[in-house]
């Protein structure tokens, strides 16, 4: 009878053991992990380096092409290579500079600037993505850590049930089937614990990777999970916020500008580039030299001729037109996609919120009542041991499902934050 009373107390106490930590503590832990990731995540560091590299390219984009320096021997007799046999012989030193048609360098600068902006936007997008992954990984870790507590509590209960069944069987009051059922349930719960521990460690390893840390231990990170947030923004406001802050949408707009810049540069290609050149010829006095060996100075102006424009420039211009059209439609597609993703995430949050409350206020209280009723009925011999065991296992599964629903809610909320977009610090 004492063991029955002990069992009853365990059954009544265990549903109250499982609770969630305060949101403030969770936020402190998550913020700390996010700051580590923003400073140390390799993908973020790489994206920042790409942005900085693009900035240097922009600074070099509107400079003139490198000039050409030449040196040549002119009109030298083949036999002697002498400078003083003919008046036209000399050593020429030349300097030539290519000058693009006005507007080309401006458009090159514009295109390079837009590319640098794209890298900056990609940098912001990576930060949003990593923050989402950190939150999701932390909630995953928290889920398995809290699930481990539930499993441990139920292992303790399974051990008590097994002990009760074995004692009753030894006293001739129970069945061998009850002992075997309790033992099987206990073994399955032990196996469940092994999987939970494995998943907990995997989630922690994911956090280590995202924050570029290698020395976390399981006790270093508090396992806290925020409760359902009852405040809810309207879908329209979320979409409006995303239109201003979502990096991918900003990138798509920038791609339209970039395509327009390339189109302007393609139109510039119909116009010729200039080449300005000067040459200084060193001479020596030769027979019949009218200027007595005085050095010569020459200058010339050249133009590139786009004579293949119907094959080259026309096709470049058509390609730029198509790229501009592609960028506009891609921007529209991304806008629609973001609206869909926000709507889908919002609806999923609502479903999880309502489902959690249903579990918390109806389903689990009913399961607890069913377990208590089965326990009382078992004590007076109105139900068999298997019914009691089934009622407890059902409550255990519902507790895990409730915890999973809360984890999914917070992960969906983290995904929604990424879709809407947020600026995590200046570059």
Describe this structure in words.
This protein has 427 residues and is α+β, with helices and mostly antiparallel strands. The protein has one domain: Outer membrane efflux proteins (OEP) (Up-down Bundle). The chain is built from 9 helices and 4 strands. It has helices at residues 2-17, 23-40, 42-60, 104-170, 176-211, 235-245, 247-268, 313-379, 385-420, and strands at residues 68-74, 90-99, 274-282, 296-303.
Topology diagram in text:
Blueprint: H1 2-17, H2 23-40, H3 42-60, E1 68-74, E2 90-99, H4 104-170, H5 176-211, H6 235-245, H7 247-268, E3 274-282, E4 296-303, H8 313-379, H9 385-420
Antiparallel strand pairs: 1-2, 2-3, 3-4
Helix pairs in contact: 1-4, 1-8, 2-4, 3-4, 4-5, 4-7, 4-9, 5-9, 6-8, 7-8, 8-9
What would you say about this model in short?
This protein is of the alpha+beta class and 427 residues long. The chain is built from nine helices and four strands; from the N terminus they run αααββααααββαα. The two termini are 70 Å apart.
